[in-house]
Amino acid sequence: xxxxxxxxxxxxxxxxxxxxxxxxxxxxxxxxxxxxxxxxxxxxxxxxxxxxxxxxxxxxxxxxxxxxxxxxxxxxxxxxxxxxxxxxxxxxxxxxxxxxxxxxxxxxxxxxxxxxxxxxxxxxxxxxxxxxxxxxxxxxxxxxxxxxxxxxxxxxxxxxxxxxxxxxxxxxxxxxxxxxxxxxxxxx
Length: 188
Known about the structure:
The protein is an alpha+beta fold. It has five helices and ten strands, in the order αββββββαβαβαββα. The protein is globular, with a radius of gyration of 15 Å. The N terminus is likely disordered.
C-alpha cells in the first residue's frame, strides 16, 4: 500500500509523527504527522456531488479534511468516513468551520448521486468530489495516492488558509482527529 511510503515521505519532509504545533502562543501536541511545507497536495479541480466545479480555494476559512476512497469499499472507507463524521460532531459548533471532502478513486461508478447519498450518510455537511479518469489521476498524483481498490487511507488536513498541514494516520480515532482539527482552527 501507499500508506507506509506516504507517511514515510511525510515524516522525512516534515516533523516526526507526534508533532508539536503552535497555536495562539501555546504548543499543542498532535497525533497526526505535520507535513507543513511539502511541495505536493496543493490543490484539486474536480466536480462536486452538487454538480459544481470545486477547488481548494472554495473552502478558504475552513479546515478541510480530504479523503480518497470509493463508495463500494467494504471496510476502510466507511470506517474512515464514520470516524470523520464523529470527529466533526465532537467539535460541536466548531464543526461548522470544517469541510470534509471525499474524493472518489472510482469515477466510473461513483457519479454525483451515488456520492451524495454516500457522503451524507456519514454527515449532512460532507461533500463528494469526482472527475473524469484524467482529472482523477491528476488529483491522485498531486496527493501521492494510488487509485483503484488500493487507495490511500490517510486523511489530509488543510488549515483555513488552504495549506496542507497534517496527515492523519489510518488508525486515528475521532477524538484525535477532532483534537488536531481544533489546533488548526483560528481562535475566535
